[in-house]
Amino acid sequence: MRDTDLLKFQRPARYLGKEQNLEFKEPQSKDLRVCLCFPEIYEVGMSNLGFRIVYEFFSNFEGLSCERCFMPAEDLATYLQERREPLFSLETKTPLKDFDLLAFSLNYELNFINFLKMISLGGIELDKSKREKPLIIVGGLTNPEPLVSFVDIFFLGEFEPQANTFIKALKLSKSLSKREKFSALSEIEGVYIPDFYCLERNSLQPKEKEAKFPLTWQYYQEFKDNFYPKNWLIPYIPLVFDRVQAEVQRGCPNSCRFCQARCVYFPYRQRPPALVKKHLISLYEKTGYEEISLSGLSVIDYSSLEELLKEIIPYFEKRKVGILLPSLRPQGKASKILKLLNFAKKTGLTLALETANPLLRRKIGKYIDIDDLKELVKLASHRQYRVLKFYFMIGLPGESFEEVLEIGSFLKELALLYKKEKGSYPQMNVTISYFIPKPFTDFEKEKMADFEELIKKKDLLKKSVRSLRFIKLKFSNYRVSFLEYLLSRANRRISPLLREVFLKVEEGADYLDLALWKELSQKNNLELEYFLEEEFSFKSIIKKDGKVFFKSSV
Ligand code: SF4
User: Fold this and answer.
1) Whole-number Å distance between alpha carbons of 504 and 110
2) Which of 17, 118, 194, 418 could form a disulfide with 90 if both were Cys (CB 3.0 to 4.6 A apart)?
């Protein structure tokens, strides 16, 4: 497809490439040709810091040519499907099927269908046993098992420690058969080749002599300077997160018992503030963005946050650049930090509280300093923050109906506090998600609350705040949460079912139709409950830092 043909589609810049700061090397005949894929549209994919890090790393590697592809929007997808034209890369418009390797960054279960759609649109056989090329590698998943029918290799954990070794081995194995590639790559730590293992009584067992057992989950211990996108690409269209980001930490020092991210990114590591400052200033100078953000889990806990802000505020304030922090956890110093950010844009204050009941909060391991929270709300009123955003969960283990109702009274109390200072109520945008017991967390063996209970709790909560016009509740979609629950723990027997669901979706069915999942599952002589009741199989073959993964991460 030529660049001018892209004008037929909405936001053609999604498929154009050629962003400012791009240093693209034209592929040479001997190069290993890699396409880095992201199963969401361009605006989401290019907002992902991890994707940018990996893209720049691959692009700088000698003897390798790296391009990108994102999930096309509906107009382009339909156009390609109707004309039987393959999905292509941004940089050279090469069909996906012509690459040596597709490397997917995939970290959300609900994107499995997009992943299959991209492969199918790329003109590639879905079933990996019928495919020799391209090799498909996926990184970012905590439960790869639902994708074993389609993916050749998974990379487990953080990519940085093995990046050099892995890419060198990929290049060396370019001309080998797929089976020979498997043998060569299986020696690298973090590489999981699902064909080398089989499922026996819901635990994975090695079946090939090259199969490593257990496999080692990778983490980037040094967390140094060499992995961050120095050439920050500036897109022609606004992104979901349209700003430069500097990663201040990996992992989280807190112990929220429901949180999968803290287990997966264990142990907690921090970057020295001088290094973060250097990254931010160099990124700003290369891009001229009007906003920068500090990224990481619970950034408020970064131990040098105050020191860092005091260092960078004079530089960015002078240039009228806003500094954004992700959601704040009131833990004692949040109000102090907000005071420092006096000049930042007043986009809204985001607070992840999870539950309003102190005992339940303790039970789930979420520590909130109520005095700090109240101070934050007062400060928000003086600082012209008109919108306060909150995150809560319902359906927590052992949660009563009364505890759900407390969310309404708690919000009212905070709103009154705000009004006392400012004379008017704030706008409160409250997102309520359904608790999903995730693998690797303390609640791995819990069950998700059933539909009837969650709907009752939802209705009760809605009713309790109906008269409070300043509170806007937004609930997660139950069907999305249920599929996330299912796919985050299902064993590999669900893989053929996923394929059947995908084929039905291609015929017009709704991916979120749970009745369809049940019907197709029964057709395969399986009940969906089977996947929810069995032990989480994938954990049986992994370890981290010399110990069984789960034990080292709690
Ligand atoms: S503070 Fe946030 S990231 Fe950290 S453990 Fe709790 S929920 Fe997870």
Assistant:
1) 16
2) 17
Most ligand 1 atoms within 8 A of CB, residue of 366, 369, 393 to mutate: 366
Residues 6 or more apart whose CB falls under 8 angstroms from that of 101 comprise 32, 33, 34, 35, 134, 135, 136, 137, 170
Distance CA 134, CA 131 (A): 8
Q: At what angle do helices 273-287 and 305-318 cross, to 10 degrees?
A: 20
Instruction: Tell how far the Cα of 365 is from the centroid of ligand 1, in angstroms.
Output: 9
Distance 256 CA to ligand 1 centre (A): 6
The gap from C-alpha 259 to its chain's centroid, in whole angstroms, comes to 13
Residue 249, pLDDT above cutoff 50: yes
| Angle between helical axes of 495-506 and 112-121 (0-180°, round to 10) | 70
Which pLDDT belongs to residue 545? 59
Q: Could you please report the per-residue DSSP string of 489-511?
A: T--GGGHHHHHHHHHHHHTT--T
ipTM of the complex: 0.99
Going by the DSSP 8-state scheme, the letter that residue 234 receives in this structure is: B
- Domains in the chain (CATH in brackets) are 3-216 (3.40.50.280), 244-544 (3.80.30.20)
User: What is the pairing mode between strands 547-548 and 349-354?
Assistant: unpaired
317: CB partners within 8 A, 6+ apart: 343
Q: Any bridge partners for residue 291, and if so which?
A: 322
Instruction: Tell me if the bond preceding 206 is cis, omega within 30° of 0.
Output: no
Closest CA to 323 of 277, 386, 357, 379: 277
Q: Whose CA is nearest to atom 8 of ligand 1?
A: 259
Are 332 and 299 in contact, with CB atoms under 8 Å apart? Answer: no
Beta strands 203-206; 197-200: pairing state: antiparallel
Cα separation of 317 and 315, whole Å? 6
Look up tokens 């000698």; give the residue.
62
Strands 291-295 and 322-324: parallel
Give the pocket of ligand 1 (CB within 6 Å).
Answer: 252, 254, 256, 259, 261-262, 297-298, 329
Separation of alpha carbons 309 and 492, rounded Å: 47
- DSSP SS3 for 210: coil
Q: State in Å: Cα 253 to ligand 1 middle.
A: 8
| Beta-strand pair 249-250/269-270 | antiparallel
Q: Tell me which residue of 457, 428, 251, 242 sits closest to 351, measured CA to CA.
A: 428
Q: What does the alpha-carbon distance between residue 479 and residue 117 come to, in Å, rounded to a whole number?
A: 20
CA dist 149 and 492 (Å) reads 8
**Residues 35-91: pLDDT tens digits?**
999 999 999 999 999 999 999 999 999 999 999 999 999 999 999 999 999 999 999
